[in-house]
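Title: Comparing notes on inverse folding

I've been comparing how different people in this forum approach sequence design from structure. To keep things fair, I'm posting one structure and asking everyone to reply with a full sequence. Here's the target:
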């Protein structure tokens, strides 16, 4: 697949089929992701793959926790939407309006149901950084994750990076050998996109280039 097509064909997959992903494919995707630029070649990331029984245990414990309406406690700080910039708030509001139009008045329940099941993903990659990480490493890890998802798209796989995947880090840590010296930064779900799932009909728009580009000749 050409680079342009790969970029344009990558969409957040909010529900996957039951088809398993070959471990060989996951390893090859990660090898390609390792070609991502890294600050002074520091390569600070570590990746933990949850699949099979370990992932099913995580999924079930997430479901049980979600029934209690427990608040998430991710290890990477988050802030309320109202604390974002006006530009960010406007874009998020427009996206929410679009989701409502696509899924209907019960869109929050529909989205929540898929999220509680961790999007039915057959594989989830958890990306960590050392506890004393540099802010530059956050940039590196974001670039690594994007390359990873584009590599997955090139292989016909769907992907999803979401707050939900790292919402309850204690559950993740209880089922994966993540050391206390690491911080769970993000989770990326991999699998085959379920094209019949309503939540996979969601699309998002991008701002006109003129709103984010300043040219100084």
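Reply #1:
Here's my take.
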């Amino acid at each position: 697949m050409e680079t342009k097509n790969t970029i344009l064909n990558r969409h957040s997959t909010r529900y996957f089929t039951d088809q398993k992903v070959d471990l060989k494919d996951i390893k090859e995707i990660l090898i390609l992701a390792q070609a991502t630029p890294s600050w002074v070649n520091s390569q600070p990331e570590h990746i933990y793959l949850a699949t099979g029984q370990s992932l099913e245990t995580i999924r079930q414990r997430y479901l049980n926790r979600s029934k209690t309406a427990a608040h998430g406690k991710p290890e990477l700080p988050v802030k309320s939407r109202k604390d974002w910039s006006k530009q960010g708030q406007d874009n998020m509001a427009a996206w929410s309006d679009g989701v409502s139009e696509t899924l209907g008045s019960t869109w929050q329940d529909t989205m929540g149901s898929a999220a509680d099941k961790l999007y039915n993903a057959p594989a989830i990659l958890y990306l960590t950084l050392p506890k004393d990480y540099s802010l530059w490493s956050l940039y590196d890890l974001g670039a690594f994750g994007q390359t990873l998802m584009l590599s997955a798209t090139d292989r016909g796989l769907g992907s999803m990076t979401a707050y939900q995947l790292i919402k309850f880090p204690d559950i993740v840590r209880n089922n994966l050998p993540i050391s206390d010296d690491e911080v769970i930064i993000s989770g990326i779900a991999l699998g085959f996109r379920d094209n019949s799932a309503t939540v996979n009909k969601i699309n998002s728009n991008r701002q006109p280039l003129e709103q984010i580009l300043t040219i100084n000749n």
